[in-house]
UniProtKB/TrEMBL annotation:
Membrane spanning residue stretches: none
UniProt-recorded name of the protein: Phosphotransferase enzyme family protein
Domain of life where this protein originates: Bacteria
SUPFAM superfamilies on file: Protein kinase-like (PK-like) (SSF56112)
InterPro entries: Aminoglycoside_PTrfase, Kinase-like_dom_sf, Pseudomonas-type_ThrB
């Protein structure tokens, strides 16, 4: 289908008419394909959902709408200040539209906002971490058991490790030879799995965002304050250490996660300190001592696990993460392992920062 006919079809489906409309890509998420659909009446964000990643799009929308409703209540009570991204129904009151061999949804567009792929300074890091903290607190009394597990075992390192082992044994694309050193490195880190297991029953399971990347935050164009937490697709029960660790992973490096300038990939300690400060402040009345201590494990686990997943997907033939060139997932994996190595190298400093909050 031509992009113009897709735009017209979506625009009519979501009640924007077919006159004077345009559609262009927005943002740089690499799961769904996200477009801004502009009509004279209003603009909507439309997303073609990646059904390989989310085989049950109706469950995805159901989850997100439960969270929308909860956050809306919190806002009415004055307990949540950020904007809420609502799903927009079609003229026939559905939330999903079949178009161009895929499934689409529409979200309210938050104008006057921007997102970042790399954190520019400590104030931005602290602002975003604080907003993710507010989001976590707002979800504390949400019954996460209502959520469908859209991706079972999403942050289950043991399961991710098994997947890597399986794909290494199969080597379906004959790519192993090009990444044997990375695979060996991965296998040598599996002690992390036992460290995580040791937390069972000690650290509380809570509703988590599970994808606290810096580009899942919208900032206000004028004030640079946080405007909204977005991308609620992987909200599921988990540990706060996951959300903390994913912020460290995506906020602290001065390089994007697919940069090949590995010499420049590192944890910026002042950004790390800003993430800790920003995130812990809203949580302070809820967080347990063990949970605070678990943030060091979160710091290590999340960067390592995403690296492992990029590597697994590379060996498997790039089914999960969309790629722009042949070795893209391998480059992403090597980038994340460089960051993970720097985390280990800075253990004393980072642990001291965590201890001092
Ligand atoms: P993905 O799941 O692929 O990461 P996201 O939902 O995070 O997709 O959207 C990708 C990008 O699109 C975001 O980083 C942001 O820049 C932009 N975006 C998404 N939703 C909105 C919205 N409601 N308003 C404004 N921009 C948005
Ligand atoms: Mg996203
Ligand atoms: Mg997403």
């Amino acid at each position: 289908m031509k992009s113009n006919s897709i735009a017209v079809y979506l625009s009519e489906s979501f009640g924007l008419g077919s006159e004077k409309i345009s559609m262009k890509p927005i943002g740089s998420g690499h799961i769904n394909s996200t477009m801004l659909l502009t009509a004279p009446k209003k603009s909507l964000v439309v997303q073609k959902l990646n059904t390989e990643v989310f085989p049950e799009p109706d469950m995805l929308v159901k989850n997100a709408r439960l969270i929308e409703r909860h956050l809306t209540k919190k806002r009415q009570l004055g307990e949540y200040d950020l904007a809420i991204i609502r799903h927009v129904p079609t003229v026939e009151n559905n939330y999903l539209v079949d178009c161009d061999n895929g499934v689409w949804r529409a979200l309210e567009f938050i104008g006057g906002s921007y997102s970042e792929d790399v954190v520019l300074n400590t104030s931005q890091a602290q602002t975003a971490a604080n907003a993710f903290g507010q989001f976590a607190v707002a979800l504390e009394d949400f019954d996460a058991k209502q959520l469908h597990h859209v991706i079972p075992d999403f942050h289950n390192l043991a399961m991710r490790a098994e997947k890597l082992k399986a794909v290494v044994a199969k080597d379906p694309q004959q790519r192993l030879a090009s990444c044997q050193a990375d695979v060996d490195f991965c296998f040598a880190q599996f002690g992390l799995i036992d460290e995580l297991k040791a937390l069972t029953g000690i650290v509380p399971v809570r509703p988590c965002h599970n994808d606290t990347k810096i580009n899942n935050m919208l900032f206000c164009n004028t004030s640079n304050d946080a405007k909204a937490v977005i991308d609620l697709d992987t909200c599921m029960p988990g540990y706060w250490l996951y959300d903390f660790g994913d912020m460290v992973r995506t906020f602290c490096s001065p390089e994007q996660e697919d940069s090949t300038d590995l010499a420049n990939v590192c944890v910026r300690e002042e950004i790390f300190a800003a993430v800790v400060k920003g995130y812990v402040e809203p949580l302070k009345d809820l967080i347990t001592e063990q949970e605070k201590q678990s943030f060091w494990l979160g710091t290590k686990v999340m960067t390592f696990m995403i690296g492992l997943r990029f590597l697994t997907d590379y060996i498997d033939g790039d089914h999960y993460f969309s790629i722009k060139h042949a070795n893209h997932n391998l480059e992403r994996a090597q980038n994340q392992f460089a960051l993970y190595r720097d985390i280990l190298a800075k253990k004393t400093t980072l642990k001291a920062i965590l201890r001092d909050v």
